[in-house]
UniProtKB/TrEMBL annotation:
It holds the Pfam family G-alpha. It comes from Reticulomyxa filosa. GO terms for cellular component: cytoplasm; heterotrimeric G-protein complex. This is Uncharacterized protein. The keyword tRNA processing does not apply. GO terms for biological process: adenylate cyclase-modulating G protein-coupled receptor signaling pathway.
Length: 304
C-alpha cells in the first residue's frame, strides 16, 4: 500500500513577494487522521454508543456490518505505521454501489474468475462480464440476510427500461434479483451445463432479522410468485398453530433456508443442469481460516 503525504496549495497569481503570504496550506493529513482516530476511539468506548449501535444501527438492512470491526481497531488504524492485515482488506467496502470488481486467482490448482456485480444492473450487462468460455463450474454467492434488503438506485428508470426490453420485471429486492441473476447465468451456459455451487452466507443474520428484529420472511416472499417458472411461495403453513412464538424456532429458520435452496434447485432442474451443490455458512465468510475451509468444500464439489 502506498501512502502519500503532502499539502494542497490554493491561491491565485500574485507577485513573488506576496506568494508565500497569500498561499493556504491544508494541515498534515497524517496528523489530522490521528486526531480523528483518537476522537472516534473515545466516542466508541462509551457504553451508550455501543449499545445503541448493537440494538439499532448495526442490524439495519443495507448497512455495512464491518463498521464495528473497524471502530474496535480505530486507534491501531490511525497510527502512522499502520498496515492493513488480510482480515482488514477482506472487510473493506467497495468504492461505490455500482462497482464491478473482477479478478483471477488459483485455489488448490483450480483457476477462478471472480466477478462482483454488487448492486449493478446485472440484467443488462452480465453478458459482457461472462468472458470465460466453457467454464467447468459456476460458484454463486448469496447472503441469506438479503431477503429483506432492497437495491438503492437513485435513477431506476434506465434500468427499468432495460428490463422491459428483455421482457423481465425490475425488482429492487436483493434476494429476488439474485435468483433472477442465477437464472440469467444458466441461460448463458445452457449448452455447456457446468456444475453449479451455491454458497449461502449469513444464516445467523437471517435468524437475527427474523427472530430478534421481527422482519418476517413471508412479508417479502409468502404471497409472491417469482422464479422461472413461477412458483407459489407458501412455505409457512403449519406455523400458525404457534401464535406466541412463531419465529423463535431454529427449525423454522432451517425451513426457510431449504425453501431458498429449492428456488435455485428449481432453476437447475428446469434447464437440466447437474445436481446443485450447496454450502451454507452462519456468518459472512470473511475469516481467512473459514475461507480456506470453504475452498476445500468447493474443491470437493468440483471433483464429485
Amino acid at each position: 500500500m502506498d501512502v502519500y503525504e503532502g499539502h494542497l496549495d490554493v491561491g491565485w497569481k500574485v507577485g513573488p513577494e506576496t506568494a508565500a503570504k497569500n498561499r493556504i496550506r491544508l494541515p498534515n493529513p497524517k496528523k489530522y487522521s490521528n486526531e480523528v482516530a483518537h476522537a472516534l476511539g473515545e466516542i466508541w468506548e462509551l457504553e451508550q454508543v455501543k449499545n445503541l449501535w448493537k440494538e439499532r444501527y448495526s442490524t439495519l438492512p443495507g448497512y455495512s456490518p464491518y463498521i464495528g470491526y473497524y471502530l474496535d481497531s480505530i486507534q491501531q488504524i490511525g497510527r502512522e505505521d499502520y498496515m492493513p492485515e488480510e482480515a482488514d482488506l477482506i472487510r473493506s467496502p467497495l468504492d461505490n454501489p455500482n462497482t464491478i470488481e473482477e479478478c483471477n486467482f488459483f485455489i488448490l490448482s483450480n483457476a477462478y474468475k471472480f466477478v462482483d456485480v454488487n448492486a449493478n444492473d446485472v440484467a443488462a450487462v452480465f453478458k459482457d462480464l461472462l468472458h470465460q468460455k466453457n467454464p467447468s463450474a459456476l460458484l454463486f454467492v448469496v447472503s441469506l440476510g438479503s431477503y429483506c434488503e432492497e437495491v438503492a438506485i437513485n435513477e431506476p428508470e434506465p434500468i427499468a427500461k432495460s428490463h422491459s426490453r428483455q421482457d423481465s420485471t425490475y425488482d429492487p429486492n436483493v434476494m429476488r434479483r439474485s435468483i433472477n441473476l442465477f437464472y440469467q447465468i444458466l441461460t448463458m451456459c445452457i449448452h455447456e451445463k457446468p456444475k453449479c455451487i451455491l454458497l449461502l452466507t449469513e444464516k445467523r443474520l437471517l435468524k437475527e432479522r427474523i427472530v430478534d428484529q421481527n422482519i418476517p420472511f413471508d412479508q417479502y416472499f409468502g404471497k409472491r410468485r417469482w422464479g422461472n417458472p413461477d412458483l407459489k411461495c407458501k412455505p409457512f403453513a403449519g406455523k400458525k398453530t404457534d401464535d406466541k412464538k412463531p419465529l423463535t424456532n431454529d427449525k423454522y429458520i432451517d425451513r426457510i433456508v431449504r425453501f431458498i435452496i429449492a428456488q435455485f434447485e428449481n432453476e437447475i432442474n428446469h434447464y437440466g443442469f447437474p445436481k446443485l451443490s450447496v454450502i451454507v455458512e452462519d456468518n459472512d465468510c470473511t475469516d481467512p481460516g473459514q475461507i480456506k475451509k470453504i475452498c476445500l468444500q468447493i474443491n470437493q464439489a468440483l471433483n464429485l
